[in-house]
Amino acid sequence: MTEPGLQFSILLSLSGTGIAVGGVLAALDFADKCLGGRRFLLFLSEFTVTIAGGALIWLVVLFMNDGVFRLFFILPTAFFAVFCYICILKLLSPRIEKAKSALKRFKRTRAGSFLVKYILK
Description:
The chain is an all-alpha fold. The chain contains five helices and no strands. It is elongated, with a radius of gyration of 19 Å. The protein starts with a helix and ends with a helix.
């Protein structure tokens, strides 16, 4: 068994990883809804975030717990990821229409620019 201070720091690290993953996934979902997303890019970005979150969990397990994986490590990470995802999405969802209208105004003012031609198509 590990000492209590180390257990607490492991719990904080896993919770922080969950918060970061949930926040980034919520921001990606918001951006996808505003931009009218491209499915492949959305899949690629969500896949990258999930893989990075898994790598961070694995680093915590390797360096802080000497490579001993416990099933409990999934719980705080998953809980905080889902909680943060839901909370941030609830905060951002009323702003989707305003963001879409701001994007339309931006497209109209920058009609011939590279960004509108090739990225915001």
